[in-house]
Amino acid sequence: MLKAREAVRNLPAYESPIAGRKGLRLDLNENTAGCSPKVLARLREITAEEIGYYQEREPAEGMVAGHLGIERSEVVLTNGVDEAIHLLCQTFLDAGDEALLVVPTFAMYEIMGAATGARVVTVPAGENFRLPFAELLARVSSRTRLIAIANPNNPTGTVAEAEELLEIARRAPDAAVLIDEAYFEFYGKTVMGAWRAHELANLFVARTFSKAYGMAGLRAGVLTGHRGQMALVRRVSSPFNVNAVALACLPAALGDAEHVARYVQQVREGREGLRQELSRRGIHCWPSEANFVLAKFGRLKDAFIQSMTARGILVRDRGRDPGCEGCVRITVGSAEHTQRLLAALAEVMTEIGAEILPESKGETVSGSRSGTGANEGTAK
Ligand SMILES: Cc1ncc(COP(=O)(O)O)c(C=O)c1O
To answer: Which residue in 138, 139, 242, 271 is deepest, having the highest Cβ count within 10 Å?
Structure first.
């Protein structure tokens, strides 16, 4: 057996979060209705030649840049935001550097950061998962080369103010500051382009086609930033990192803004419906600007997950994330799927002993069952 690099030996073994997933998948924040029919139509037209040849990324990159209102030199298309994170780590992190994260957050920052041999420094989120602005700045050191913040954050759905994010980039000029806007469409606020308006050459913004666009399986994301920095990122990227099928479908996806807008509207309504229903039953959940809600079931957590799974609805145990004990993350999907979710929720809550409260008081710890803690600890 070959010995891997030390940084790789120290990484925990990867557990697939999608093994054996059957049912309504409300566990990975995907679009439950899938991609636009225009994307499917384009897929059906793909020719053998398109698949047979390496395809240039640049035309689609130009189109995406136009859609985002920035220059092509400020954009690199990636194999999902996962790869954008990987490229940033490869470009800026050396062994012994520091990557600074606020936890809980998306697991890939830690995995990809640690894989370079950098030290991952974590700062716990503030009350109600607020961005711990002062604490984060206090941890910026001369070795900090990457700061990654998801906004909205996963798994909490909470957001930070744009001004705070820009101030972090100002106060850490030697670090690449990644603002991961994977859930942008459900939120609507961005710091895209602030590298120009605020002269922040160390600021990067990532977006994905996996969520609102419903194309997680095609793997397409975008990393954007100052053109000089993006030229460096491009050096570590394979020219063919985005597959031919995804490249062919991107124009069709961008051409169906209505599909995205309709879905986003359904998610926003469903998110509110789910929050109200949970609160009515005394289950605390945090205000979310993404396509999921994090809810605290306390010691009812495992019973809840098991009863939902038994009804064919998959939700995500986040109980092992820092500050998330007893928490479950529930994706909000199409109107039809939200209806199914709410119907199952009503049955499950009665089954596990979380009755409707006369007045919602936040977190519940009522009910008699406690569970075993399955289904935890993976990346998405
Ligand atoms: C914050 C965040 N960033 C990135 C991703 C991954 O996106 P992609 O499918 O584009 O790799 C996710 C997926 O769950 C996420 O929650």
So the answer is: 242
Same-domain check for residues 235 and 174: yes
Q: Does 338 lie in the same domain as 198?
A: no
Please name every residue paired with 203 in a beta bridge, in sequence order, or none if there are none: 177
Note if the pTM is more than 0.85.
yes
Does residue 32 register a pLDDT over 80? yes
Query: What strand order describes the sheet that includes 144-150?
Result: 75-78, 221-225, 203-208, 176-180, 144-150, 98-103, 119-124
pLDDT tens for 253-274 read: 999 999 999 999 999 999 999 9
pLDDT value at 370 more than 80: no
Atom of ligand 1 nearest to the CA of 84: 11
**C-alpha of residue 82 to centroid of ligand 1, in Å:** 6
Residues with CB under 6 A from ligand 1: 29, 80-82, 106, 150, 154, 180, 182, 208, 210, 216, 221, 380
Q: At which of 254, 273, 297 does a domain end?
A: 254
Atom 4 of ligand 1, nearest CA residue:
81
196 pLDDT exceeds 70? yes
